[in-house]
Amino acid sequence: MKERIKFDFSIGPVQGFIARARRTRDFWAGSFLLSYLSGQAMVAVLENDGELIIPAVTKDQEILDPLLQAIDALCKKKTIDSNDKNLKIATLPNRFRAEVLEDFDPDICKKAVCKAWHNLCHAVWDRFLQPIAELGNNTEEIWKRQIKSFWEIVWVLGETDFPLERRKNWRSHIPPMEYGDKCVLFEDLQELSGYVRAKNRDQREKQDRFWAALRSQIGRYELDENERLSAIALVKRLFPLVAPSVLWEVPVRYPSTPYLAAVTWLEKVAGDAEKSQAAQEYAALCVDHLSGVAWRETPGLFPKLQEICSEKPSLQEFLSLDGKCFFKDAIRNRRVWEEQKGETKRNVATSCSQEHKKIAEKLEEKLKELGEPVSPFYAMVLMDGDMLGKLLQKHPNKVSKALAHFSRKVPQIVQEHNGITVYAGGDDVLALFPLEGAIPAAVEMRKAYIEEFKEVYEVLSEEKMQATISGAIVYAHYSTVFTDVYNEAQHLLSKVAKDETGRDSLAVTVWKRAGKVITWSAPWEIVLREGKDIFTFFVEQFREDIKKSGSEDKWKLTTSFIYHLNNRLAHFKLSEDSENTAEQKETFFIDLVTAEYLKSRSHKMEFKEARMLIQKIMPLCQRWWRDKNGEICRDAECLELSGMFLLKFLLQKGVER
Q1: pLDDT tens string 125-170
Q2: Starting at the edge strand that comes first in sequence, how are the strands of the sheet with 515-523 ordered?
Q3: Are 309 and 315 in contact (CB under 8 A)?
Q4: In the beta sheet, which residues pair with residue 182?
Q5: Whole-number Å distance between alpha carbons of 619 and 506
Q6: Strand, coil or helix: 515
Q7: Of 94, 122, 462, 527, whose CB neighbour count within 10 A is largest?
Q8: Is 2 exposed, middle or buried (0-12, 13-18, 19+ CB in 10 A)?
Q9: CA 12, CA 298: separation in Å to the nearest integer?
C-alpha cells in the first residue's frame, strides 16, 4: 500500500499580474487567468489519485466548485454550460495543498498549467498577432520568450506544515533580460513591435505602423491610441475574445468604472415612470451625436438593471450607454468626445470645436431632466481572513470547509448590492461596487464569514483563537488610474486594517482626482455600533428627516461645521496628567462638539436634542484600534475627524454642491 504525503503548489506572480490593468476587464482577466491555471494543476492532482485539502472543493471524490468542475470537464472534453455565471468568477486560489501518493510526480501539475497557458496564448497569437507579425522586429521571438518565462511555479512535497514560504526564498525563477521599449502595463517587459522609438524616425514610424495594424483588427476599444503592450499584457487584454474556442465564453464586455459609479443612479432613473421618456430622449441624443461610440455597457451583469430591461425594453438603449455619457465633466471633455467619434487630432482641431460645444450643451441640458447628478465614485472592496495560516495549521479540514462555504456565498451577497465579483476564493474577496453598496456588502460578507466558522468556534475558543476577517474599501473617482486604486486597497487592507487597527477591522479611503483625501479605520464593533453599519445608520437618519421636514437643516452636517471643528478642536488635546476619568473627558468633548454644532446651524435647536445627536456620532470623532490582546482601544485625549469627513462624503455621494 502506497503512503500518502503532503503536496503544496503555488503559481505567481499574483499582485504583479492582477494589478497591471487599465480597465476593469484587464483587472478581472488577471484574477480569472490565475484561478483558471491553478485549477489546471488541481485537476492534474485529482486525476492522479490525489485529494485536495485546501481549498475544500471536493467531497467523496466529487468536485463541488463550479469553476473546477468546468476545468475538469474541459480536460475530459465534456460539454460545458457557458451560460453558467459561476464560470465567470475566479474562485480558485493561486496556491493549494493536497495529499498525493508517495510516487506522485509534481511535474504533472507544471505541465498541465503550461499546456493550458500555451493553448490560450497560441489562440491569441494565431488570431491577432500572426497576421501582422511581419511588420514587427523579431515580434515572434519576443512573444515566445515572454510567454515561456513569465510564470513562477513552486511546489513542495513533504510533511512540513506550509513550507512554500521557505521554498520561495530560493528564488529559482529568474526571468530573462528584456531590452528595447517597454510595455505600458508591464514596465519590465519589452513591447511587441521590437522597435525603439528613440533611435530614429524610421523606427518610430514602423512601431506606430505595427500597433495601428493591430488596432485596425481588434478595434479602438481593445487597444488605445498610445498603448504598446507586451505578450503578457496582450493575452490579458485579448483572451476573452478567443475564450470560446479554447475554454468557454467569458465576459467580453465588463462594466467600466464610470458605469459602475452610475449603476444605482441608473436604477433609480429607469425605475421612475415619470423620467422614462426623458431617459429615452437622452439615449437617442447620445446615439445620434456620438454615433462613433465604440463601447456599449452590459446592464445584464446587474440583476436589477436586467429586470428593468426585460420589463421596459424601451430603456435598453439608455441603460447600455457608455458610462461616460452620464457625467457632465466627460460630456464637456472634448478629448473624450473626440476619441468616441474616432476623429484625428488634426480634423478635430479644425472642424469639431464649435460642434462639440453645441452638442455638449444640449446633452447637459437633457441630463438635468433626469434628476440629481450622478456620483462619480465607485468602490473597490477587499476582504481577507485574519491569522488564517495559524487556523489552517491547527484545523485544516474544518477551516477549509468553512472557507469553501463562505466563498460560495460571496457572489450572491455582492450581486444583491449591485456589485461585480472579481475574485472569491477561500477567505479572499475582491469586488467592485457603486458607492452605495460597498459598506453594506462588506458588513454582510463579514457576517457570512463569522457564520461559516460557528462549527469551529468552540474548538478555537479553547485554544484562544478566533476566525475573523478584515476589510478595505477604496472610494475612487472613476478617472483614477485603476492600478493605483488596487495598490491602495492592498495597502489599506494589510497596513491600516490589519497592522495599525489590529485586525478584525474595516479601513476606508476616499480617493478624489487630487489624490487621497480621507482615510478612516476602526474595529468592526465600532462600525456596527448602531446595529447596522454606523455610516448607513446616519445616512438613512439624515434622509428620513429631510423627507419629514422638507429641510436638510435638522441633521445638517455643513462643511463649515466640520472644517471649523477640525481647525479649532482636532488638534486640541487634553492633558494626560488630568485627573478626569475617560468618561469625564468624553463628556467634555461631547459638550464641546455640541456647542460648535449649534453655532453652525441657521435654525434654533435645543441643546439636549443636539447633544443626543453628537453623542451618537461621537465614535466618528475618535481614533479606535485593537490592542495585542484583541481589546478595543480609543484615544480619549483628542478628536480625530476623518470619520466625520467620510460621513459627509457618503451623504453627498462625492458630488460637489
Answers
A1: 999 999 999 999 999 999 999 999 899 999 988 765 555 555 444 5
A2: 420-425, 428-434, 377-385, 469-477, 505-512, 515-523
A3: yes
A4: 190
A5: 14
A6: strand
A7: 527
A8: exposed
A9: 31
- Here the cell at position 87 is 464560470
The conformational region for residue 100 under phi > 0 = left, psi -120 to 50 = alpha, else beta, is: beta
| Alpha-carbon span 337 to 294, nearest angstrom | 11
Per-residue pLDDT for 445 more than 80? yes
Tell me what the mean pLDDT of segment 112-135 comes to. 96
Name residue 520's beta-bridge partners: 508
Question: Residue 83 is which amino acid?
Answer: N
174-196 per-position pLDDT tens digit: 566 788 899 999 999 999 999 99
Name residues whose C-beta falls within 8 Å of residue 650's C-beta, 6 or more positions apart in sequence. 435, 439, 535, 539
The C-alpha R_g of the chain, in whole angstroms, comes to 27
CB 634 within 8 A of CB 624: yes
Identify whether the C-beta of residue 593 lies closer than 8 Å to the C-beta of residue 644: no
Amino acid at 611: R
The pLDDT tens digits for 272-285 are: 989 999 999 999 88
Specify which residues 506 forms β-bridges with: 471, 522
Residue type, 515: G
Is-contact 587 490, C-beta < 8 A?
Answer: no
Closest alpha carbon to 115 in 233, 246, 249, 241? 246
**Model confidence pLDDT, tens digit, residues 581-594:** 667 777 888 888 88
